[in-house]
Design brief:
By secondary structure, the protein is mainly beta. It contains one helix and 14 strands, in the order H-E-E-E-E-E-E-E-E-E-E-E-E-E-E.
Length: 205
């Protein structure tokens, strides 16, 4: 009788433990969703960098491909990707007459961020950045291997970047030949956004 009682108790315990074990396994099998990585917030077709006033002026240097904004604890970084960045007489003589580029976005807190660059007569590329039309210092780099322009500003230089729940949207980019449009694009759909400090394919410190 004692052996039978022990066996019965063991079976009952197994029945109690089995459902619980199954529930744990089921919970563990469900992976947590990965954080979204924001990349190519703005994309434009290739090979359309052509002057609106002089169709003969067709250049990879005027061809906008994509762009991104990223923010980190200390900086905000803007990257504009082009078809080319060879501004010399042998590869692109039209650039001597003046090329310029703009990239920007709005923020949910009401600010407008603009990043610009220009080149002419064989001079180095000039750059600038503004927030609501007010100039802000931006470190600027031209990467000829990747054909990118990169602007980096310090969060501490822009008071609005210190406010919480900031979301960037309405991205746009333009290129110009002698101040006339060459390539122009805006984010599609307009609902494309970048939340402040979200993961990005662009590094911001």
């Amino acid at each position: 009788m004692r052996t039978r009682s022990v066996l019965a108790a063991g079976v009952a315990l197994a029945l109690l433990v089995a459902p619980a074990t199954g529930a744990v396994a089921k919970t563990a099998a469900k992976p947590k969703p990965k954080p979204k990585v924001y990349c190519n917030l703005l994309v434009d077709p290739a090979n359309d960098g052509t002057s609106s006033i002089m169709p003969a002026v067709h250049s990879a240097d005027l061809d906008i491909l994509s762009a991104d904004i990223a923010t980190g604890p200390k900086t905000m970084v803007a990257v504009l990707r082009l078809g080319g960045t060879n501004f010399n007489a042998s590869s692109d003589p039209w650039s001597f007459l003046g090329y310029s580029w703009k990239f920007g976005a709005e923020s949910s807190l009401g600010q407008v961020y603009n990043f610009s660059a220009s080149v002419d007569y064989g001079n180095p590329v000039n750059s600038g950045a503004t927030v609501d039309g007010v100039g802000v210092h931006a470190d600027f780099v031209v990467d000829h291997a990747k054909n990118t322009f990169t602007w980096t500003i310090k969060r501490s230089d822009v008071p609005s970047l210190g406010r919480p729940k900031n979301v960037f949207h309405s991205f746009y980019a333009d290129s110009y030949f002698e101040s006339a449009s060459a390539d122009s694009t805006a984010a599609t759909p307009a609902s494309d956004i970048y939340p402040d400090k979200a993961l990005s394919c662009v590094h911001a410190s």
